[in-house]
Amino acid sequence: MRPHIVFSLCLALAALACGKAPDRRSFTLQGQVESVDPAKKTVVVKHEEIRGFMPAMTMPYQVQDGKALDGLAPGDLINATLVVVSNGAYLTNFKKVGTAPLEKPPAEASNPPAAASGFELLKPGEAVPEGSFVDQDGGKRRFSAFKGSPLVMTFIYTRCPLPTFCPLMDRHFVTLQKTLKEDPSLQGVRLVTVSFDPVTDTPAVLKQHAKRLSADHTRWTFLTGDRDDVDQFAARFGVSVARALNDQRDITHNLRTAIIGADGTLVKVYTGNDWSPEQVLADLRGLRTVRELGTGDRG
Ligand SMILES: [Cu+2]
Fold it and tell me: What is the DSSP string of 261-289?
């Protein structure tokens, strides 16, 4: 369930190698280990505010070497260094300073958030349910209004501080937008980014965020809405969002990106962050053969 970030991190670092030197920043992180996965080289840490970088949050973090996680267990209180480069981040220099009972079960092991209970995962070919949203201009949007255009849809929150999570989804969508613009055969395809953090991501915030990404709203729409509505809608795609009891903005989440056909049915869901825009474009082009791609009515 946890996003796999190794592969895209490597790609990102490879890309960096031929560009300018990465700007590398280090921060001290203090927190509690919620779960450890040496095989995936990740550790979920609930941590305090990192001054000047990010608020208190619970997130999976990458380490460079699984050995760095030796001896760490859920409940451990740690100090560590968070190293952030342009397109990646990892934890290093772990120091165990104590242990404490976990406040809540680890996100991985616990049941999906309430919104997911009673909601079945959508399967390819099934109709995506209706949803009510608000767009970046504050306009009401019903999901069914997108019918007639194939969609690529992803779920993020704009405060997500780690370059390999939500910001990577944004960068991939920027790439997709560029190609959709250039390829006449993909004219009809629309992009939709849904924020699951309506407390922070008001339409105004989404609009600013979209502007920073040079999003063209004739093609790329940002949505949010009532928190529970968004959670329920997102859960159908396998998105799980857990918020701390004492602070709704302390978010633990996974990543899902979906292709939805022009007829409003689910085509495919990509898990985590190891998909590439090239893959999505290839899948979109494949849709043409089953006549699911729109008529290019958007010109
Ligand atoms: Cu995120």
Answer: -TTSBEEEEEETT---HHHHHHHHHHHGG
